[in-house]
Write a structure and sequence with these properties.
heterodimer; A: about 240 residues; alpha/beta; Rossmann fold; six-stranded parallel β-sheet; B: about 475 residues; about 10% strand
Amino acid sequence: MTRPGETGDRAAFLAGARTRLAGDIFTNPVHVPPPRPAPGDPVPLPGYRNLDPDDLLTTFVDAVTHAEGTCHVVDGDVPDDLLDRLVEELDGRPVVTSSEDVARGVGARLAQRGIDVGEATPDRAASAGLGVTGATAAVAATGSVVLDSRAAGGRIASLLPAVHLCVVAVNTLVPTPADVLRRISSRSDALPPSLVFVTGPSRTGDIEQLLTLGAHGPTALHVVVVTDAGRASSTVAPA
Amino acid sequence: MSGGHHLLPGTTLRQRTADAVANDRLRTNVARAVDRFSTHRVAGLAELDDADGLRRAARAAKQQVLADLPALLEQFADNVLALGGQVCWAPTAADARRYIVDVVARHGATRVAKSKSMATEEIDLNTALEAAGAEVTETDLGEWIIQLAGETPSHIIAPALHRDRHQIKDLFVDTVAAPLDLGTEPTELVRFARRRLRDVFLAAEVGITGANIAVAETGSIVLVTNEGNGRLVTALPRVHVAVLGMERLAADWAQADLLLALLARSATGQRLSSYTSVVTGVRGETELDGPDELHVVILDNGRSDLLAGEYHEMLGCIRCGACLNVCPVYRQTGGHAYGWVYPGPMGAVLTPLLAADQPEAAELAGASTLCGACMDACPVQIPLQDLLLSLRRRKAEHAGRTERAAWKAWSAAWSDPRRYRASTKAATWTRWATSLAGRLPVGRDWAQGRTLPRPAGERFRDRWKAGL
């Protein structure tokens, strides 16, 4: 009965549940539940009142700000003045990038400024002042960027450094989380080992339920939306 | 049920409640926290079109999942195995603990990092790992605080909400040698914890998480955190162990999308928590980080017994904490008075069901006003007040013979006009009540903490006869 990788007796584990479900299922008579859907019945789509379907970009910028992140909408490439500002905040610490072309491109421009830039190994990322990544999608209604560990070559470039800079192409902007999540079912390729919706910087409310940024992950999140996606990755040679 | 269940030893619900209510500082801290949560929840849900319709749909989706649970669990497990993960079927808390202790021992691991998980609290995993020689560190800030204090969580999403900043600073100074001049501003306390816990993440050999949702169609686990500790625990250690309550499934991503739209808003009011992670299998070949091994422990621990029965809707709970935040009883007592790991209305239902071997657990169904605020706040519309009422009925049916006899005698006396008249004579009434309260062992418990009404000197009946 037990397959490779499996511990414990599956059939015995499920036997109790199967026996109980073989009979009638109790229906609460006071607060009567809605009819039980059949497998495959459509699940209602959440509607988001802060979403302007005709202006996803404005909705996205507002939602990133709402989540305590900073959003920059740029034409073509990450602007020099933003990079200069981030370099100032580095205070001598190194930078790590994910392995996406767009992140390595930003890394190369930082290296030209004399900054120590490298790939995101745990030790390097832990001491880094900035982590640069791309994203596979951006979600307008929630202000999330979606990070794919397969495309990025890992997870921690966006997580261990003090600041996270995420560069995302405007043509990957979708209205709601459903546009990412519900499409998983029809994906032809397998899911990456880690797919993360990042919505603002790391935070905690565990002390008096007061918002404090930078609990374990980055204290600040900069999202750069590139409105001309082609140039961002092609005008800069990969590091 | 074996192990993992210990209501606070040597205390009773009545004592714990009295202690909590007498603690002004505790009540101030709890009230401040639940008010903030509740305000944010209302604002967060107001941003959804027809939030009540979505809650109804979530209740329906959960009913569907529970009706089809064995097949969905098989599909989920097969997908985890196909992705190179390992699956443990754990009928009891002891089975789950034994498996996880084995995994840690097999890797010769001594350092274990955990992200917040109520399932691991339920099975009292830390005690078992520590007994086996591992150093276990909770990395959620609130969980770390209560671990240092040797406490259980007082809230399912904000485990340390009963402590204010000054108490937390003093705790850091007393337990982890924080400098005496550490400030009490939350930013300073958080920075101190961040530095300490960073080393834990980097050194840990095994990472342990719970699972907010497990998605059957792809074998994925969804982890929702704000701090980033859930991501770190599944990125840096070589081994990831996820403990999954068997009911926490979604059949597909459409259901998961619906639940995620409600979860963060109901918990903290956020549109999404900072990090909503979908973990599917182990580290890929091109990746610099991520675990080489994934173990999913599927935990029953009394859940199967609830399926299809009167209490089965409790298995729809997504652990958002909204019912705690609106509960007038929780507001006055905080979580520790409930005595186990699950507090508030969801705990008052779950504890008697999952810790049924603890006689005192049944008392918890009484820790409610039955006002129904909990069901109104619940994102999956669990009829909590109906379940609480039903648990009270069940407890009454199992009451001791003396108590049942006393109520039967009372019922017989007051069903007959002559005996009723006799019993309402003031002297008789007082003697009857005193006798019930004082002589029967059950009566003594019942009378403790209750004030008997003082009978009027003269009955209305007698005054009426005397022409008022």
